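haha ok so turns out i had the wrong file open the whole time. this is the CORRECT one, sorry everyone. sequence first:
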Amino acid sequence: MRTPGSTSRIGLVLGASVLALSACVQSNNLDWDLRAGGGNTSDAARQATAAVPTPDANGILSYPDYQLAKAQRGDTVASMAGRLGLNPEELARTNALRPTDPLRDGELLLLPSRVAAAAQPAVIGGGSVDISAIATTALDEAGPAAATAPSQPIPGQPLTHRVARGETAFTIARTYNVSAKALADWNQLGADMAVREGQTLIIPIATAPAPDPEPVVTPPGAGSPTPEPPSAAKPLPDEETEAAANTPKATPPSPDLGDQATGASAAKFTMPVQGKIIRGYDKRTNQGIDIAAAAGTAVKAADAGTVSVISSDTNGKGIVIIRHAGDLLTVYVGVSNPAVQKGAKVSRGQDIGKVAAGDPAFLHFEVRNTSKESFDPMTYLQ
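then structure:
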């Protein structure tokens, strides 16, 4: 039986506990995983993830199969749709919202259809020519007409997760073996880490596998004894060798099929211009090759295909993109006086323009797929 004094003491203890909990929440020191203390390995068990992606000038995150838009302060679903030229009902339905719902500053919404991305500055000559940056809109136009779900993950594209009823940011992070903080940073979640049913989240890209667990060390005399290897109990049998006279005759050398290859079969593409390669391919710094050629030299189509893009970068260098069989694209940067139009069919070796003037004059040539992944052009030219 509680006395009035004991009831008061219990109330004081509970009140102090509530105040302490409130202080932890406000100072962000609360251990949401309830794993703090000695031997806590929850952070170490999570995979390291890449840096948070940065939207373009229009607040758009573009990936091969989808795009997301970042809400501005005071946005509603309808106002964001109007700014991006989208149907408010479609944008709301895609994100399990209503057109009149207010959006939190920085909140990411999945777009029901692709919109034009903002072009970024280019560096040509002595720097990187990143077509994904300088002609994002152009490559979006050259991409597949209808996005389909990939049969396997696309390198560089984060996975997406549609939040189901009862899920939290923490349970989703554990499902994909990433930290809840990384998940929150990548999706611009609020301080309360709240997610809603039907919301689409992007999963941070892991840059390294989760570390192996520490081996369990048992004290001497404990645990199972190490089994003795068979060779310690019984020696291996002597190796039986065959006499040299019984060895089979050497097989004749295989014919060199390269000598029989025609020009068309030996190379997927033909050189767009003849000249010295002054800068080679590098996945990070130069996603193509630079071929020195005099200004006015004819630029030729590397293979038959359809002209998908006629454009130019921020320095006025002409860009031509041709789609070929097998979902391959060839990109030509530094083209003046284009001799073809968008949508035109071109044949292998057909003139598509001239090398633009420069110091030095050169053509930048790339090979990509419709997911914008670049490849070393020399593997297609040799």
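Residues 307 and 342 are 5 Å apart (CA to CA).
again sry for the mixup
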